[in-house]
User: Fold these one by one.
Assistant:
Number 1:
Amino acid sequence: MKHDTKKLSIVIPVYNEQEILKTEIEKIIVAVETFLYRADYEIILVENGSTDNTVLIAKELASLYSQIRLISLPVAGYGNALKQGVLKSSGAYIAVFNIDFWDMDAVKKALVSFEKEQSDIVVCSKSMPGAHDLRPLSRRMLNRIFNFALRALFRYPGTDTHGIKIFNREKAAPVFSQCKTHRDLLDTEFLIRANRAGLKIKEIPVTCEEKRKSVYGIFGHIPRIIKDFVVIFFDIYF
């Protein structure tokens, strides 16, 4: 099915988000329509393997708001959900974020950066100078260890790879197509490959505050992260 080209596609993977999905989507709609007309943007909800009422709520939202599209995948997987949403989007620019961590002011700044500074990707960093990471200490420490591993293994110069990202679809979509991982590190792999391909990546500081506990759990990420690091490393260097 062909969709009209929009200025902005907002891609949001969702998994077991029944508690906050409706309220956060309605807040996002209000925020984005302070600077874009309804015809100029779309919201793509990529529900993946939810076991609660997330898919029913997402269907209701899609029926209420014409700018919302729903993709429903049978198996839970953040990376695959993100990739499917990006590749099926129609916007000249794409913003990706989680339902519990978004910042529409950052999206506006990114759109200005694309037009004035010719950036290809804008990463909203919670670790760079000027940012405020208000999450628990354990989350902040894991983030620092993760960033150290990125610099050591892949020479990635940025301060953050998770969270809010906005990018030029024409430049970035081919990089997404090259990605091999399907879980937690898809967005990290994307930025590693984009950096190696010479795309211009700009970081801007954001405030990150945890609205609720991760639906995946902190330590449940670690084995998957290690496996994905191995996949990325060998695919890039061997």
Number 2:
Amino acid sequence: MSVPSRRVSVDLGARSYEIAIGEGLLDDPTLLRSWLRGREVCLVSNETLAPRYFPRIQALLPPDARVSHFTMGDGERFKSFETLTALLDTLLAERHSRATTLIAIGGGVVGDLTGFAAAVYQRGVAFIQVPTTLLAQVDSSIGGKTAVNHPRGKNMIGAFHQPEGVLIDTACLKTLPERELQAGLAEVIKYGAMHDADFFAWLEANMGVLLAREGDALGEAIARSCQAKAEVVAADEREGGARALLNLGHTFGHAMETHTGYGPWLHGEAVGAGMVLAADLSARLGLLPWADAARVKALVAAAGLPVMGPEGMAPEAYLDLMALDKKVIDGRLRLVLLSALGTGVVRDDVPLVALRETLERGPALCQSPT
């Protein structure tokens, strides 16, 4: 069954753009061509996806396009300064001008690094996102956050740089490994937990069909997630306030990823476990009923995601790494918590004793201590 085509607008004035969602969009050249800045194009993907997608994307380009290709390693550890430099070397060697358009084809690693290269090459060139993973389709491809990782912290070096458009072909998910599909569902759950209680309940009722990759359900989940993110980004493009709510689970999750060395844990897996920690802490502080915290944990588990952090990761390791998080301001750690299902809240006054208690709970997370 084909997924109906949907459109979501990200309203940012002169930097506004469209998210196109549907099955088979990579068979239609009209949309991609309308977003090109000029006739110079650089296709960027990883070594796993490049053989599959480079010929398809190139076939969509105008016949007179001058096309370069850059293939990076596959994995979070390649979102690095070394890969960024290699991509910039390619652009320079191929004499790309300010009229070039970079096209990122892949997951969040490819999209983030390509976007950062576009932000800094000749002080900014155009780029297009063609996300092929569920996580990238509902989160990292939208909103203009671009970055590379640093050994001391994830996404610590980057820039805000909005794409010309986001092309989401849901057919890409048919071949997505199950683990990566599950990882993407963590970000989908996030939108329900922090933004839309009705969507959270819909996910509880439909998780089975989402895991079975039923087309209409996936299209609905993607569109509702993109709409939620578009609304938040339009209200707060550079994370001065409301956009911070999109980081539910991420401060904990980034600490897990940094601790394990960017690779053993997928980003979505860390976010899933991080949301459970955030829900437990929210209940511990009296913000969220314990029963609702348990619902967060149950939905994360139903998506096939871990509900606890890496084995053996001590509270001190979390605290040390969280202290380096981008959301630390004036020495105060800001955490995204839940005041209700569907309502996120940013707190910078969490008592250290409460945070430690949550980090020490293990299997008892989201269970009332009384």
Number 3:
Amino acid sequence: MYLRADAEGVPFPPKRTFWPPPRPRVGSSGPRPHVRDLGHLRPILRDGMLESYRKWAIEQDGKDYVIWAGPTPHLVVAEPSSALQVVQGGAFVRNVGPTEALFGKGLLRLEGKPWVDRRTLFADAFRGKGLAPALPIIQEEVARLIHDWSPRREAFKPNRDLSSFMFRVLSRFLFGIELDEQRYGGQPLHRALATLATQSVLEHLFPPTLVRLRTQRQVEEARRWLDAVCEMIYEKGGNTVFLGALRGAVARQQFPRSTAIDEIRSFLIAGHETSATALSWSIAQLALHDDQTEPVVAEASRTLSQPDEVNGLVNTLRWSKETMRLYPPVPLHVAQAAKRTRLGRFEVPAGTRVDVCSYVLHRLPQLWHEPEKFAPERFSSSPAPGTWMPFLLGPHTCLGLKLAMLELPLAIAGLAGAFRFRLPKGPPKVNLRLSLHPADFWIALTPR
């Protein structure tokens, strides 16, 4: 793998390219840019990045294409073969610069051997015996959420409750500690996450120097607050597989304590935010498609004693997978070409930004029959490679995949078995933050 990185494995961003742009060997390069639109930047800001990318992909007949963010060309991937080529490494590295405030020197920003070593260090926490303690924790927290929601008769916003649910699961399982939500969860946590996520999204669109002039003070405050939480977790957390591996690595001087804090922050942010988002969209689908929920409700009463028994919740798993097809929690993977290379029909100069947008790949009519339709039965068979990637694919597949696919089916089945859901203010709207957040999301529920 071609890689320029610092001593801890965080890649240096390849030189930002303005010219030449990626050039197609055949066909057009993409939608026509206009000076009045700053290339394609104004439509993106007006209509949203994801919907703009989807519209242009359909116009380009499902082919990869180039857009211009002002004077900077971006290659947007819409072909599964190209997506697989990018996420499997080789000539491409992740564009990690905009996520520095979120993840520091943590796993989610590493490449090469340091990334392999760090992923290996944590792997036991997310498989086999290491994952077993998560099952009773999830079951207890689902029961707690059902208990808390049962008296509710008025419409309410569930986002914070669902975030707190995933926060408690993660804290108990990964860190061996039940964090006081009044102090560490709720509004302070959401404010810190929103600040850091907003900065990261803006830095993917605009020059980082300009973004930081506006956001630096708020970002520093958010980081200080989160780092204080992570220091407390490191000191007072239980002897879990994850924290045991982390403390052992610090004791062996594999990396400094500051990197351990970065790892706790990385897993704290990414580990609960994306799962909460996926659960939120799944509940919205329960409300929108109440006539399809009977197979899910039928699985609510099943007793599970081992994590792998979740595979028996066939209909609920299909429900969660179809939800994540339409609303992938992390809908965009941003990479850069580390050297001049070929991607599909394009010659790609070194330094070119390459966007692999799962939101687009999951909604293309060239890849999916009636892509806007919610149809869990699609997942009675495995999708074609590169067409469904809510957890990415290849070496950088999400380390927490198995945990997420334990949390989601158990929570969906439990809530579907306890309640009928309505959306009194209509379907939620897509809002790209750190994850694909549901905005204007209100529910009303009726006990079954």
